[in-house]
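Purpose: get a first structural picture of the assembly so the mutagenesis plan has something to point at.
Setup: two entries, given in the order below. No constraints added.
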Amino acid sequence: MNEQIASIQSAALELIAAASDVRSLDDARVAVLGKKGTLSLAGALIKDIPNEEKASFGQSLNAARTSITEALEKKQNALQAIADAATLSGIDLTLPARSLHTGGLHPLTLIRDEAIQILRRMGFALADGPEIEDEYHCFDALNTPSDHPARNEKDTFYFNSGKLLRTHTSSVQIRTMESSAPPIRIIAPGSAYRRDEIDATHLSVFNQLEGLFVDTDVTLPDLKGTLEFFFREMFGTTTPVRFRPHFFPFTEPSFEIDVKLQIKGQAPRWIEVAGCGMVDPAVFTSINATRNDNALDPEKVTGFAFGMGLDRLAMIRWGIKDIRLLIENDIRFLSQFR
Amino acid sequence: MNISLNWLSTHLDLSGKSIPEISDLFTFAGVEVEGIITKGIASEKIVVAQIMEAIQHPDADKLKVTKVDAGEGQLRQIVCGAKNYKVGDKVPCCLPGTILPAGFTIGETKMRGVESKGMLAAAEEIGLPKGEDGLLILPADSPIGVPVKSLFDSDTLLELEVTPNRPDLLSHAGMARELATLLKTPLISAEKPSITAKEASADSIKLEASASCPFYAATRIDNITVTESPDWLKQRLTSIGLRPINHIVDITNYVLHETGQPLHAFDAAKVTGAIVIRQAIDGESFKALDESEHFLTSEDLLISDESGAALALAGVMGGLDSGVTESTTSIILESAYFSPSGIRRTSRRTALSSDSSYRYERGIDPQGVLPAAALAISLLESRSTNSCITQTAGILPEPPSPVALDLTKLHHLLGNSISTEAAEEILTRLGLKKLPDGSWQIPSFRLDLTRHIDLAEEITRVHGLANVPSRFRATFVPTSDVDAAYDADMIMRGRLAALGLYECQTIKLISETQLPDILPLRPMQDGDLIRVKSPLSEDHAIMRPSIVPGLVASAERNARQQTKSIRLFEMGRVFRNAGGGKARDQESESLAILVSGNTNPSSWAAKDRAADLYDAKAILSALLPNQEITLKPKDRESFVLSAEIKAGEQTIGVFARLSPSRERQLDLGSPTFVAELDLAKLRKLTVGPAHAADLPQFPGSSRDAAMELPIDTPNATIEAALAIAKEPLLVSYECFDLFSDPTGMKIAADRKSIAYRFHYRASERTLVLKEIDEAHKRILELLKGITGLVFR
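Result (structure tokens, whole complex):
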């Protein structure tokens, strides 16, 4: 009997060795181990074998089964390896990728977000206000004389209603102070409008970021520390920052801020980046009159304000030579900012 | 304003100060230096040198090797290519280290192997007018070694921007006074000419408008011969870019730029009787000397005479006929104080401005009115033999009131970075005087100093912010509504960029011709558009009621660049009136999207395919993945395939395709889909779930249904039927196949085949087969009710 099993085993191993693919291997498995397979049929004979030989027969049967199963598994793995190799052959890693769209954010959004992220870390919250403004919020409350040149129809867009397009985001200062009490610590990014012909350095609609901090103990050292920190976060921790005396109707003292930067291909130079100053007490007085209280008592409350041109910051950051690129939306330009 | 350094140096010793130092001085005084123009030779390192030897360069036909004596004790070897000199000539020699006007620096170098220590220069190379070709040959008696600069006139013109609060700086004397303060150096004192003034009789000056003209002085000077100005005067004027005319006009111009006080000279022969200072009559016409004609109002101040003739628009511009000409023999010289606001109003309304109006409208020094007249008369008298008397009318404005300085506030403001003594010393240097009561008397030329904060500003300015410490501190601020909106917008921006869209920024003012492209959330009615009163151009005349026109223009621009795939978005404000121009102007925020051209960038792996409506809809769905986005057809003028965009039951925007004719007109070449969405609503939909849902505990099962339908039956009919079903076991379904055949071969041309997969599940148990089959049967029964539907 054991010889019969040995011959079944050797025939099976030959059959397995001869199998050339998964299917013929499976055929071989069925032919040997299947319900009517040669080994299974041989195994069924155990009931006819004398009891004293049963143990020996069982052992040979198991040995044969183990050997055949191992051979099957080994062959299965070998065939699978060949099949796996086949799926990998002919793949050219150097072919270009399939294409996916990759869009991007506008450089103005990127620079605005960078500024906002820095200022939020410094404890400023966002505020906003209307772009179609009245003269009161754009000029009067900001201590701008009624015959100030900026109020000219030559420089400012007016509507028949008497309203105008805000010439700066500073009007948001007023709107915020009208509706909240100190401490006020806000930033307001937004559009502003001036009647400038559009050219390489001017847009009639441009973008600013306004900031305001009003509290009981706000001083020039706060203004200086805050804005130095901001511009060094923006342009590098070693960037020289200077404050030049200037004049704005709604702040006193007022300054313009320069940072010393090297723009590609140029010698390092001072570049104007922002205006700032201590809120003029006259601004508090006029807001108190509107609020009908003394929440911004100029004897107790001080503050500083600042404003910067975001289009200009973008131009400085990326060395953009023509501001019109920021409104033309040429994908060849936009795709650089991904 | 232009300032000549030579002119400034007549008031103040600036020797030893470099141009950058002087420029910094202005900068930190608060005066912006907008330009520096150097005339003549700037560098000290260009010296007179004599050519002692010139031999042929061994390796270059066109070059000579010269030895020059630049007064250094030994000869200097310089290679030179010029031909116009001979040995013994004196020429400019640029020593190493010279920076030429063209911007480069002369060094020691080798030219074709021969050492060259400097450069011999032509006139134009060192900043002089171009002369003959070759080197500038200097006079034979020029001393060797001295800077060539000293042989020629040189000057530096500074173009300065003076802030409106500092009219006292709008003159050379005023600017010198400021610099002397900052430099702590004395002004060069000069003898001030005196003046004889007396109150005018009614037959010489009639001051009828003392509010607009508090003070008027007129000086009649006879027996004048109008001539050319002397060279020094012509030079002063040309040095700041003014053109000399004749000595009368030149003197008035000189005095203005010297003192800041505007003067005007009338031809006395053209004045009938007294000078009359009066408000204009409404509608009165005035012809200015620039030949422009203006119709005045009673707000404008006129200088006229007793015949009523207008001689000048006070403080702004002289009349065409009253001015000094070559035949003038007598003049009346005006020196006045006009009220700033009146001059501003007139200048603004008439759009006339002049050096005079520029100063009057900012405010002149009342105490400078008569001295300026005296200066002009002394300059005139030096050319004629008349002694003259100045007649005056009115009174000069009171000197400014004293101002108190609050030291507590000052030290708080400056972070205790300055001592009281130093602060007071600054005010004293600026010409203020401490009064016994502790307040400060303001000089007459500083009309801008009226409050404590004005004095604090002066102290800060001179002290310098560089000397103030920096303080780093913050307060806690809660998130505002604007913060929340900003964050939601940034999330949506990120999603759209990841979906392959580029963010745009377009101008918020649009043109009439862009109106067909507007796709506002609600259709516009007449009068809803907000137009600016005086647009710069027709291109930017209307506040955009929708962002789509801007994106369409951007798409057109990109299509012109042969861009094959255009996917754009923009977020921002839109503007409209809420009720035909009668209601409030509204500002709201929109998101606009535009999709045109290829679905994907061209590649070997897939054929190019132009994006269709479903690609555009896919972007909307991916923007709000947790919302069921549907399009509900709704007509919009000038668009096709227009629809409301719905998120569930809520309308959140408008969708459409540009009309094919508009696409052709713009050369877009592909179907162009646009959407305008209400950003305020989107922000709320971007918020994530309030609670995370439990995952299903029990398996579900799917059943397919293939149907044939008339080709024009919308898919919404099926969805509507499924909605009616309210089948509790149906958790979701999807359309997974759609097929039609225009040839009618595989399916009748007027029919389509559509296949749906339905997913059934119960949340609390595993469904048995029978339940699923019954549920599916209920669904199919409902679908059967759709007209023309048959199951395949």
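Chain A touches chain B through 85 residues (CB under 8 Å).
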